[in-house]
Specification:
The complex is a heterodimer of chains A (about 100) and B (about 200).
Chain A lengths: L2 H10 L9 H15 L13 H8 L4 H4 L8 H8 L11 H7 L1
Helix pairs in contact in A: 2-5, 2-6, 5-6
Chain B lengths: L12 H19 L3 H22 L7 H15 L9 H22 L6 H5 L16 H14 L2 H12 L4 H8 L3 H21 L1
Helix pairs in contact in B: 1-2, 2-3, 2-4, 3-4, 4-7, 7-9, 8-9
Classes of the chains: A mainly alpha (about 100), B mainly alpha (about 200).
């Protein structure tokens, strides 16, 4: 087979536009947060979802505010396992991955 | 789609400066361990990384998701090294490319499997295929995917590395610990099998 054929073929068949599944984005995000722990305190983080807001105003120490409340959140579990998870919380990253 | 690809002029140096500044802002925010910045990083780059890895890992699409995750963890680890000399997108895709090549390397380093059919060779060499100009990109992509999927992994990886990643036989040999001659023999057999499958497809 002439090499030119494969070279031309490779030139015409680069990676196609392809969207990553939202559950993969959710998994990747969770992995990033786990690798970054402890995180920037919720007291210094903008655009919090309702659950993060609860942790932010709760009388708890910095250790919890620098933790990852998403670990115990239903939104994360749904987002990591379903293609179109039934979550609509504003400012929730897992909700954001559905439409990104 | 970027606007300037439609019908407006290419970005001015001011646009490029703004984009570079946005990239650096995002990098700094992720390094500050700002969870929202990490979410933004995933939103922006998961699609291009996924598309790239998916295409380059054929036929092992079952490994794509784990590799995409590895790419992002490597991005995180190496973020301090981002200098803004290229766009963040290019830099992230560069890491994806390294990860894909790590996979190629690990698979092609393994002892060559016995692929009897090819060692015997066909009784008569099939005709050289022609690249049908009338086939649109999508159909060509689909046919290519099907043919690569039908090959032994060793062959499809060798072809992907050589022609889609544009690495020379010498570079592949250096990465895999094989001799250049051995890589050329592998490529010759892979091309032969590809030709047969392409003509049959």
């Amino acid at each position: 087979m002439p090499e030119e054929f494969l070279e031309a073929l490779a030139g015409r068949t680069g990676p196609a536009e392809r969207k990553a599944p939202s559950r993969l984005k959710a998994r990747v995000y969770t992995a990033l947060l786990a690798a970054q722990s402890p995180l920037l305190s919720l007291s210094k983080t903008p655009r919090l979802c309702v659950f993060e807001q609860v942790v932010r105003i709760a009388p708890v120490g910095e250790r919890l505010k620098s933790g990852n409340p998403c670990r115990v959140c239903h939104a994360r579990i749904l987002a990591e396992n379903l293609a179109n998870p039934p979550i609509w919380w504003p400012n929730c990253p897992y909700t954001g991955f559905k439409s990104s | 789609m970027r606007l300037y690809e439609v019908n407006v002029p290419a970005p001015s140096s001011l646009d490029r400066t703004t984009a570079a500044s946005e990239d650096l802002d995002l990098v700094v925010a992720v390094m500050r361990r700002d969870r929202k910045a990490s979410a933004r990083l995933v939103e922006l780059y998961a699609d291009p990384v996924y598309a790239y890895v998916h295409h380059r890992l054929l036929p092992r699409t079952d490994l794509v998701e784990d590799l995409v995750q590895d790419v992002f963890l490597a991005v995180l680890t190496n973020l301090a090294g981002f200098r803004g000399e290229s766009s963040l997108r290019s830099w992230v895709l560069g890491i994806a490319r390294h990860k894909v090549e790590d996979y190629y390397r690990s698979r092609l380093r393994e002892p060559e499997s016995a692929l009897d059919e090819d060692q015997q060779g066909p009784a008569e060499a099939p005709p050289d295929p022609q690249l049908d100009e009338s086939l649109d990109r999508e159909r060509l992509q689909d046919k290519t995917r099907r043919v690569l999927e039908s090959l032994p992994e060793e062959y499809s990886l060798a072809l992907l590395w050589r022609y889609w990643e544009k690495r020379s036989a010498r570079e592949i040999a250096a990465c895999t610990g094989r001799t250049e001659k051995a890589v050329e023999r592998l490529l010759a057999r892979a091309r032969q099998r590809f030709r047969r499958r392409w003509n049959d497809a």
